[in-house]
Specification:
The complex is a heterodimer of chains A (about 675) and B (about 675). Chain A is an alpha+beta fold. Helix content of chain A is about 30%, strand content about 25%. Chain A has 14 helices and 29 strands. The chains are: A alpha+beta (about 675), B alpha+beta (about 675).
């Protein structure tokens, strides 16, 4: 078992923290150096020629880069006198609050500033505020100085930036102001200067209002906004404060990334390169929103956003040739209806699902038409894989998710006795057979003798055995296409176990194939560990994943190993699929749907046990078996009391398994029990 | 023992790699970045009454420090910087070597400007080595841009600089797939920044770049920085002279067919009147007499106005006085009375203009503090203005004195008017100064440079022109109280970094480095060569290791980061050369004085004689050589090609004694005893 301490010891080098509000158009990002960054210009056209054929785009002409990390503007406070930086740190305070404090300690000066969003709805004002303080230590002497903003980028396209009166002061009203010579007021030993900068993104604030007092008031308003927000509508309390802090920050970040498009609140992955909705990310983000108690928002608006991507041929393909997106959409529709307990909506959308199935069938036909020489003949045409391997290739990620979509559709169709269910079942079986046959052909062994299924059907040195196994993992859980003891599952877990020693999570699973981690991919794998009855590994991954976040509790999609010399990274930050996955894993550790059963406390680590003052609480968490509430109370050092409640859903679990002390207790809660209090003894949980 | 360690180098440094007379003034910063497109962000209207332009709309700090483009090499992998170091290949060779030491990597690059008939470019050769502990990482060397991408020059990189370790996967922001750098591996490459013309990218290989580097190194080593030998046995000083001479040529530029000696490559990329006086003199000392004389005078005459003034900066009235002095001095150094006679009408028109200024002041009435001198004027060098001041009459006295003396010698018309005007201004100066003289808290009398009290100004602020009035102006004799008082004042403020502080634009915790050279000339003039040489070495210690100066910079231990003016600032370079020359060959009160400021550090060694050949004076071209003869004696030889003036005396200073040479002997050799 790894140390379950969250110290952010594997935080990425380049860090971004969003200070925008919920559903905010302005996704202001604060970097690890305390700079505010605006106007992300990195494109997200992932299929562009330059991205795919980069090696052919080499010219003799050098391409220069700046340090803005693809932002048009970067603003960083600094002072204008001379001093030597000793230490730099950031403090993010209350995880519920999007406020970043940066502290720079110099030999003779301390400069600190807080950045936060501000808005005044009555005046249609949206701004970012930088509240700064500068102190001259003993031995400073004195120097002409001011606190100013260093601008990296084009001034003409930057919104107006205001400063509090007296930020720029002069010690004399004489002389010439030449370049380098500013006559700024003297800053003296023992002085404490305070001020505020305002980046006015929308609307207008009269300059005479911009004072330090106003800034402090704005700060209080913003803090109150965040503290009153309650990203989790219902109680979700883990007595372990590190995890609780992560949960609160994750939920807040998911809402910060969200944005209103054509009246619909779209759960977006991130604020920059992934400032959009993607099908697979959406599947999980919407589930996280349900867990956060935002079911109505997730269901109506999330589903609408997804359905808006439908094509006349029945497909959903946000990324061209990303064929599995259609199946993911089917699975999402069904899962959303399950979680909201709305069979009627599912029936209404059944024709949409059938059109999606028809499209999948047409893909099968295309593959067949390519002839038996084509390695994916029994599955699908060459497809974009995503998540580590591009393509198009004949692959296993496409059939993996298609199996999930078809399975979900088949099961829903059978339960509701919907038309053409059997043709779906037939297609599922055909794809499953094709998968097994092809996988049997393509199965390989690592140097350590571990069997693995490469995700494409042709050999490429570039790929690692674990590259792009994300979809296969999701086919196992939540897809449950293969049972927990299936050899594919055990092989995958052995493979992951062989590559997770360095930083506690599997390495080289994503786009960066060398000395890197795709942090939240570990959460997909953790779900598989949980599914395969290895909750200890799931929780190990959870903590290790948390340690890959920045101290602001947000993740970069992929980053290099901490001790490697490689500085590559990829994807967005905050990356909220990561946020969603942390929430999902914590929830599933406590309440998981598996094999037709409802399992409780399947992965409850002892450090999550309630304390004398803090219960473990999960209230009305949605499952296909209805809304589940648990409250675990500590009675004394050895005794606990569990309050269980279930509001029935549209399906009934076969069994309700309560895990305690690491052992399933099958008879403690019956599916017929809607409410129950149970006394539990012992704390020897593993 | 006096040493040059650059201990007071400014934190923000610039050097140039460009060629003499080059229109492309490539600047390399202390971090090894290449900088292009300097611009003044303030504009003239915001320089004066700047406080009125401050608003709550914030004025941003510019990370490019006013260059539109700043390009710095870096590697794309991750490592921790331990140390960085910059040096030039040599004082004569502006090839910059930058070395960065990281925990697991060494990165170095060499920058040189290159050209041929088809192009002018800056060459950057880089070398990266992965230490044994490196491991491996995808990496490439790239140029990091601070500034405006639209202003970039064409940049060619050598083949292989961008390479990939795979042809698979996606190239996403942050994910590059660059070729691996492995432990123990060294890679080299080239960036070529094409500033003018065209070059075929295929040519740009490492081998080609190394050949170009060799060519340009040879060019610089063979470039005659001075036409006649100047050899100082202290190689530290020799290196400073070599670098100063080179930098003066690098700042020079051809404008409308005239070669202009410019002060610097950025904010002072121009000819200024007073700077020009001294820069041209330095050019003569370096042996560029024909160019300095013919083109330098033309450049000044281009600034002549129909009203007789010769002026560049508005209300900088003394510029007309400086222009007169420059014309006279240039003709003297050139030994060309014909040109002086030809330009005499120009001088007379300038004198008329000065008289108009006097009348303007007079018309302002006796309540005006400058009533006896000039209208409110722009001072420069520490005080702006317009104020009734002493810098204006200071330099005007010099101009009139030079004109008076030459007019008298050549019996030129209008002389009486000049004499009368000179006497009137001199009397006005004395009379006003008596009224305005102040006393420092330490009890030192001083003349404030403006006639109204401003607590902003220090006693020594803007005394530059006053010092120049003393020397080379010689308006006041060396034992005059003004001279002695100024030197006492300077002595009271030179302890911190060896040169007087707070004499210039930055009034607090700062030095105007080369102003110390003006004061050193006064020390020399006043018979304190030890102080002059102390200032010379201390001034050198304010240069960056590339042996160039910023105009003004804050004190090394202060928290202030203010600076001002250009870098390289070649008035500084000129002053260094002038002071070394004058320490050895000095014109004072119609005397020619030799070795007056010779410090022991400059005594010849077995390997190096002290040599100054054909150095120009108003007494003609003077050559001296000091060499070791025996263990206890030196041989001193002197030769003079007569000039327009004959010195009253020729004096050799040796071991705190002065020997008179026969002024009729133009060549002489002496045996001098070594000091005990």
């Amino acid at each position: 078992m790894n140390t379950r301490q969250i110290s952010f010891c594997y935080a990425p080098d380049v860090q971004q923290t969003c200070i925008g509000f919920v559903d905010d158009f302005y996704k202001t990002l604060v970097r690890e150096d305390g700079s505010l960054n605006y106007g992300f210009i990195g494109r997200n056209d992932f299929s562009s020629w330059e991205r795919l054929h980069y090696w052919e785009a080499i010219t003799p002409y050098a391409k220069v880069r700046n340090d803005n990390q693809f932002f048009l503007h970067r603003l960083k406070p600094r002072f204008s006198h001379k001093d030597k930086l000793i230490n730099k740190s950031q403090d993010f305070g209350d995880p519920r609050v999007a406020l970043v404090k940066t502290i720079e300690e110099y030999e003779h000066t301390t400069l600190e500033w807080e950045c936060f969003g501000y808005r005044d709805v009555s005046r249609d004002v949206r701004a970012d505020v930088i509240l700064w303080e500068m102190k001259a230590k003993n031995g400073f002497g004195y120097a002409s100085s001011r606190v100013e903003l260093e601008l990296h980028g084009d001034k003409d396209t930057l919104p107006p930036v205001l400063e509090s009166a007296n930020t720029t002061q002069f010690y004399v009203y004489e002389g010439l102001r030449l370049v380098g010579l500013n006559q700024f007021a003297f800053f003296q030993e023992g002085d404490l200067w305070k001020g505020v900068f305002v980046v006015l993104l929308q609307g207008d604030i009269p300059t005479n209002e911009i004072t330090r007092t106003w800034g402090e008031y704005a700060r209080e308003q913003t803090i109150q906004y965040w503290r009153n927000l309650r990203p989790f509508r219902w109680e979700f309390t883990i007595p372990e404060p590190q995890i609780q802090g992560m949960l609160e920050a994750c939920a807040r970040n998911i809402l910060q990334a969200r944005e209103i498009h054509n009246g619909t609140a779209v759960y977006q992955v991130g604020p920059t390169i992934y400032r959009g909705l993607w099908t697979v990310d959406g599947h999980f983000l919407l589930q996280a929103a349900h867990i956060m108690g935002r079911q109505e928002e997730a269901f109506e608006q999330g589903l609408m956003a997804l359905l808006s991507k439908l094509q006349p041929n029945g497909s959903v393909e946000i990324i061209p040739q990303h064929y599995k997106e259609t199946a993911i959409t089917i699975a999402t529709i069904i899962r959303q209806c399950e979680l909201i307990n709305n069979d009627q909506r599912l029936i209404e959308l059944w024709p949409t699902i059938l059109r999606g199935v028809d499209y999948i069938r047409s893909l099968r036909d295309k593959a067949k038409a390519m002839g038996p020489e084509y390695p994916g003949y029994r599955l699908f045409p060459p497809a974009i894989l995503d998540g580590g391997i591009e393509g198009p290739f004949p692959d296993y990620t496409t059939p993996s998710w298609i199996l999930v979509g078809l399975k979900e559709a088949r099961d829903a169709g059978r339960r509701l006795q919907l038309p053409e269910t059997e043709s779906i079942s037939y297609l599922f079986d055909e794809v499953m057979e094709g998968f097994i046959a092809s996988a049997t052909r393509d199965m390989k062994k690592t140097n350590e003798g571990i069997s693995y299924l490469p995700m494409i059907m042709e050999h490429q040195d570039y790929n690692k055995p674990q590259s792009a196994t994300w979809a296969l993992a999701q086919a196992m859980y939540p897809g449950e296409v293969f049972p927990p003891d299936h050899e594919y599952v055990t092989n995958l877990l052995r493979l992951l176990d062989s590559v997770d020693d360095e930083q506690g999570i599997p390495k080289e699973t994503g786009w960066i194939h060398e000395q890197a981690v795709w942090g939240y991919s570990a959460m997909f794998y953790a779900q598989v560990w949980l599914y395969a009855n290895r909750p200890d590994k799931a929780i190990d991954y959870l903590y290790a994943f948390a340690n890959h976040a920045a101290p602001s509790r947000v993740w970069r999609e992929e980053q290099t190993l901490t001790t490697s010399r490689s500085s590559e990274y990829c994807g967005d930050m905050p990356h909220n699929w990561g946020s969603a996955e942390l929430i999902r894993l914590v929830r599933n550790a406590l309440v998981i749907e598996k094999n037709g059963n409802l399992e409780l406390f399947a992965a409850l680590p002892s450090i999550w046990y309630p304390t004398a003052t803090q219960d473990l609480v999960i209230q009305d968490t949605p499952t296909r078996y209805g809304w589940i509430s648990l409250r675990l109370k500590r009675i004394d050092s050895q005794n606990f009391e569990l309050h269980y409640k279930r509001k029935p859903g549209n399906q009934e679990p076969k069994q309700i398994l309560l895990y305690w002390n690491g052992v399933a207790q099958p008879d403690m809660i019956s599916p017929d029990d809607n409410q129950l209090t149970i006394n539990l003894k012992g704390v020897e949980n593993k | 023992m006096r040493t040059i360690t650059f201990e007071h180098a400014p934190p923000f440094q610039q050097l140039t790699t460009c060629f003499p007379d080059d229109p492309h003034k490539s600047i390399v910063r202390e971090d090894g970045s290449l900088n292009y497109g300097w611009h003044d962000p303030l504009g003239f209207e915001k320089r004066k009454e700047y406080w009125k332009h401050a608003s709550q709309l914030t004025e941003f700090a510019d990370p490019g420090d006013n260059f539109l483009v700043r390009l710095k090499p870096r590697f794309t992998h991750r490592d921790k910087l331990i140390n960085t170091n910059q040096h030039l290949e040599g004082p004569r060779v502006p090839i910059v070597v930058q070395e960065e030491e990281y925990e697991h990597t060494q990165l170095s690059w060499t920058i040189a400007s290159i050209r041929d008939e088809n192009f002018r470019a800056d060459l950057l050769l880089w070398k990266v080595t992965a230490k044994p502990t490196f491991g491996r990482a995808p990496s490439k060397i790239e140029l990091c841009l601070t500034g405006n991408p639209k202003k970039l020059p064409v940049i060619i990189e050598s083949k292989g600089t961008t390479s990939y370790w795979t042809k698979d996967g996606l190239q996403l922001p942050g994910l590059m797939h660059y070729g691996f750098l492995n432990s123990g591996e060294t890679k080299e490459g080239v960036f070529l920044l094409v500033l003018q013309g065209k070059i075929h990218p295929e040519i740009v290989t490492l081998e080609w770049a190394k050949r170009e580097l060799k060519k340009v190194r040879t060019y610089w080593l063979e470039l005659p920085l001075y036409k006649n030998p100047i050899q100082i046995p202290d190689t530290q000083v020799q290196d400073m002279i070599d670098a100063s001479a080179r930098n003066i040529l690098q700042a020079r530029e051809i404008e409308n067919g005239i070669t202009e000696y410019k002060v610097g490559p950025t904010v002072y990329r121009s000819l200024f009147m007073v700077d020009g006086y001294f820069l041209l003199e330095a050019a003569h000392i370096l042996g560029d007499q024909e160019l300095a004389f013919n083109q330098g005078i033309l450049a000044i005459l281009r600034r002549a106005k129909p009203d007789g003034s010769i002026q560049i900066i508005p209300q900088h009235y003394k510029e007309t006085g400086i222009a007169i002095a420059t014309i006279v001095r240039q003709c003297e150094l050139m030994g060309d009375d014909g040109r002086l006679v030809e330009l005499w009408p120009t001088i007379l028109r300038a004198v008329d203009y000065i008289e108009i200024l006097r009348n303007e002041a007079h018309q302002m009435g006796p309540d005006y503090p400058g009533y006896k001198l000039f209208p409110p004027a722009y001072l420069d060098g520490g005080i702006s203005g317009p104020f009734p001041d002493y810098t204006t009459p200071g330099w005007i006295l010099v101009g009139l004195k030079f004109a008076k003396e030459v007019g008298s010698r050549l019996e030129l018309p209008g002389l009486e008017k000049i004499r009368k005007l000179y006497d009137e201004i001199f009397e006005g100066f004395i009379s006003c100064a008596q009224r305005d003289i102040g006393i420092t808290p330490e009890g030192i009398p001083y003349l404030p440079m403006i006639m109204e009290h401003r607590s902003y100004n220090k006693p020594q602020t803007a005394t530059w022109a006053f010092a120049q009035t003393i020397y080379p102006g010689e308006v006041f004799p060396q034992d005059h109280p003004y001279v002695q008082n100024l030197l006492s004042l300077l002595d009271s403020v030179d302890d911190e970094q060896g040169i007087p502080k707070e004499t210039g634009w930055i009034h607090d915790q700062a030095v105007w480095g080369y102003s110390a050279m003006f004061y050193a000339q006064v020390w020399l003039y006043a018979g304190r060569p030890d102080k002059a040489i102390d200032y010379l070495y201390a001034f050198a210690n304010h240069a960056s290791p590339a042996r160039v100066w910023r105009e003004e910079q804050s004190l090394t231990n202060s928290r202030s980061s203010e600076y001002c003016g250009d870098m390289p600032h070649n008035w500084g370079s000129a002053e260094f050369i002038r002071l070394v020359r004058n320490a050895l060959v000095f014109e004072r009160q119609n005397r020619l004085e030799l070795l007056v400021g010779l410090p022991t550090e400059w005594l010849p060694t077995k390997e190096r004689d002290l040599i100054l050949e054909k150095t120009p004076t108003k007494f003609g071209l003077v050559s001296i050589r000091l060499s070791i003869k025996t263990l206890s004696t030196y041989e001193f030889s002197y030769h003079r090609d007569p000039g327009l003036h004959e010195p009253k005396e020729v004096i050799v200073h040796w071991n705190n004694n002065a020997f008179l040479l026969s002024k009729s002997e133009h060549s002489i050799s002496l045996e001098l005893e070594a000091s005990s």
